[in-house]
């Protein structure tokens, strides 16, 4: 998918989310509408870092773009199902044990700090424990067999690297859900708002992946913005312990500012590096 076409689809999905948000405002009121918008922005921001990991995974396994689309489609369907399970489970736990929000807050702060300090390592992706475990369950072929997940050779069933990538992506989505679901609890614990904002954030991921896949060198600093958003949502949950509630309007303003700043800095610094190389 070309960058131009992918951008059009990204704008379409964002427009659809905003139309849904307008519907919430009309039928449910201002507060739920702000909660949906806050949840959507948080989930969208965190999904960007997830996509950077997808790029790294595909690159590590040498998966061509024409085969990436199928993996992304299955990955998105899996993410929708997993998020529903996480949302229902998370809301149930929060309703039973309200103090768990403070634990979520601490987890988000630690995750954000780790994201800032963590260095990228392409080799660690291919040598993942998940891939090693998969190899013990079913033999994996050395090369990609078109867009097939499984092939049969000499009457023996083999998984292909494409299936290994799918498993790795689904597993990483579980890890990211551990961060993203608690993060949205800093805005609301309404199951409807939490899940719908997650759905709309996930639906445009495939198109956004192709945008980032073509332009990811220009957005290297966005992950630091995402990390700061994680830390902020963690702080927002943690201060509830002291009966301090940060207004959702202020939260939205801070999240928008941090994300926009990271994008602007990424574009500026990537432009300067390009100029230096040309000189």
UniProtKB/TrEMBL annotation:
Belongs to the TerC family. Keywords: Membrane, Transmembrane, Transmembrane helix. NCBIfam families: R_switched_Alx (TIGR03718). It is a multi-pass membrane protein. InterPro entries: Integral_membrane_TerC (IPR005496), Integral_membrane_TerC_rswitch (IPR022369). It comes from the Bacteria. The chain crosses the membrane at residues 7-28, 34-59, 71-93, 99-117, 156-177, 192-212, 224-244, 250-269. It is found in: Membrane. GO terms for cellular component: membrane. This is Integral membrane protein TerC. It comes from Ruminiclostridium papyrosolvens C7.
């Amino acid at each position: 998918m070309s960058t131009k076409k992918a951008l059009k689809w990204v704008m379409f999905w964002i427009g659809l989310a905003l139309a849904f948000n307008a519907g919430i405002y009309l039928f449910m009121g201002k507060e739920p509408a702000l909660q949906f918008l806050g949840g959507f922005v948080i989930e969208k921001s965190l999904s960007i870092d997830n996509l950077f990991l997808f790029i790294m995974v595909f690159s590590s396994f040498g998966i061509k773009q024409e085969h990436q689309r199928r993996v992304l489609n299955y990955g998105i369907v899996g993410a929708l199902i997993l998020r529903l399970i996480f949302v229902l489970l998370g809301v149930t736990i929060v309703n039973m044990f309200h103090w768990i929000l403070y634990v979520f807050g601490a987890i988000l702060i630690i995750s954000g700090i780790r994201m800032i300090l963590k260095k990228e390592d392409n080799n660690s992706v291919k040598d993942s424990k998940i891939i090693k475990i998969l190899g013990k369950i079913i033999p994996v072929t050395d090369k990609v067999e078109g867009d097939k997940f499984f092939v049969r050779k000499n009457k023996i069933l083999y998984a292909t690297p494409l299936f290994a990538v799918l498993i790795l992506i689904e597993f990483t989505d579980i890890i990211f859900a551990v961060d993203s679901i608690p993060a949205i609890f800093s805005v609301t614990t309404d199951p409807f708002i939490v899940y719908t904002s997650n759905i709309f954030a996930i639906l445009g991921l495939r198109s956004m992946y192709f945008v980032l896949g073509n332009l990811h060198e220009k957005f290297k600093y966005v992950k630091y913005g995402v990390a700061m958003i994680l830390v902020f949502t963690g702080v927002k949950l943690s201060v509830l312990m002291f009966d301090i509630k940060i207004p959702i309007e202020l939260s939205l303003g801070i999240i928008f500012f941090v994300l926009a700043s990271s994008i602007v800095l990424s574009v500026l610094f990537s432009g300067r590096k390009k100029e230096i190389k040309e000189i």
